[in-house]
Amino acid sequence: MQKLALHYDEMLQGEFSLKELNFLFAFQVNCPGCFAYGIPAVNSLYEEFKDKVAFLGLSTAFEDFEFNNEKNTTALLKSSEIVGETKSYFAKQGYHINPLSLDFPVAMDSTADEQLNVEDLVHTICKTNPNFDFWPIFEQKQLQRNVRDYLEKQEKISLTFTLNQLRGTPTFMVFNQEMEILAHNFGHLMLHEMKHELETRLSQSN
Fold first, then answer.
1. Dist. CA 128–CA 3, nearest whole Å
2. How far is 199 from 191, CA to CA, in rounded Å?
3. Which of 41, 37, 73, 36 shows the shortest CA–CA distance to 55?
4. Cβ distance 107 to 16 under 8 Å?
């Protein structure tokens, strides 16, 4: 079972500590969809399940780095400031600041620096494929080359986003205390589906 590689430097809001069941919401501040349905859904889940499930909102970036960064995430949390496409989205509805609260704990995805070993990143990403060790050697090396080329072309590398090969934002993940990923969804996921997932996992642990 794939394990979540979770990296963040410090909490920007609230506290997070692992429980038997955990919920990760990866978002970007320049992502209107994250605000349109991601944040309201996670707020609702947090209100209902926060006593039994640990929640973490992770602000990340895989594009538009001038918008998707810690400075703008902090401004969002402290004074409801919004930027980029998210600002344009809300302006059409008559809002000039974020009308939504983020009720759950929030951290910023760690960014790779010059000290980080690229080969370690390549190894971790390749291992996200559960069958990697069973591939022929030439296929393993080809994937390693492809991953290395991809990483070297990136302007910045957000560790959690990149190491787990997330497809985009919003992303919703459920994982256990051993960091094993139990559910992984990208894009518009209905609230009742997420609620059912948590209810099912909690009932199985009782």
1. 8
2. 12
3. 41
4. yes
SS3 of 94, please?
Answer: coil
Write out the two tokens for 32: 């209107």
User: Of all residues in the chain, what percent are helix, strand and coil, respectively (each to 5)?
Assistant: 40, 20, 40
- What is the tens place of the pLDDT at every residue in 69-120? 999 999 999 999 999 999 999 999 999 999 999 999 999 999 987 566 788 8
Q: How far is 128 from 1, CA to CA, in rounded Å? A: 9
Rounded CA-CA distance 58/178 in Å is 19
Backbone angles phi, psi at 128, to 5 degrees: -70, -20
Q: Point out which residues pair with 180 in neighbouring strands.
A: 3
In which region does residue 84 sit, left (phi positive, over 0), alpha (psi from -120 to 50) or beta (all else)?
left
The answer to whether the Cα torsion of 92, 97, 99, 103 is positive or negative is positive
CA distance 63 to 82: 16
